[in-house]
Amino acid sequence: MAIRKIARLGNPVLREKTREIPPDQIRSPEVQRLIDDMIETMREYEGVGLAAPQVHESVRLFITADIYDPEDSEKLLAPARVVINPQMTFLTQDEVEYWEGCLSVPDLRGLVRRPRKLRISGYDRAGNEVQFEAVDFAAVVYQHEYDHLDGVVFLDRMTDMKKLAFLREFGRYIAGPDEKVAD
Could you tell me the pLDDT band of residue 142, with boundaries at 50, 70 and 90? Predict the structure, then answer.
């Protein structure tokens, strides 16, 4: 396993639509090494999720750590996942707002409105088909990572640029017990 360099905003790989990984290649040493490297990289940078373009790989793959409720750090919302060739379906028109950050856009936080509930299908790292639903904060994390696979970053989803702050100022002036952050 290796810690990979994170692509930062401005790198063209973050704006490309990614290509699917052929299902018969999911168990290949190259794909498995990429997954292991992404897990190690996400842990090193203390991210909640990481998409392949963020480590300079233009393929449809993202990972997440265990996702906990930002208001109750003991409450697990979703287990760690590896999702290959994901497809996403929104299950409601209801929306939620969370402060988001991104390893590829360091030191910034922005308030983003997203659909509240979704279903994701795809493959796991063993090549098995998976399907699961997510709501609220977990749904936001999956949408954030999925967006990377289409060349979209959270800044593109913001509707009010006045709700963008540097991390230090976010902590000093905005964050409080009611603020939730998706990273």
Answer: very high
Residue 110's pLDDT is: 97
Characterize 106-118 residue by residue with b for buried, 16 or more Cβ atoms within 10 angstroms of its Cβ, and e for exposed. Answer: eebbbbbebbbbb
DSSP classification of residue 59: B
Rounded Cα gap, residues 46 and 49, in angstroms: 9
Give catalytic status of residue 40 as yes or no: no
Looking at the domain 12-182, which fold is it? Peptide Deformylase (3.90.45)
State the catalytic residue, choosing from 16, 95, 97, 145. Answer: 145
Q: In the prediction, which pLDDT does 102 show?
A: 97
pLDDT at position 33: 98
What pTM did the predictor assign? 0.94
Give the helix/strand (H/E) hosting 132.
strand 129-135
Domain ranges of the chain: 12-182
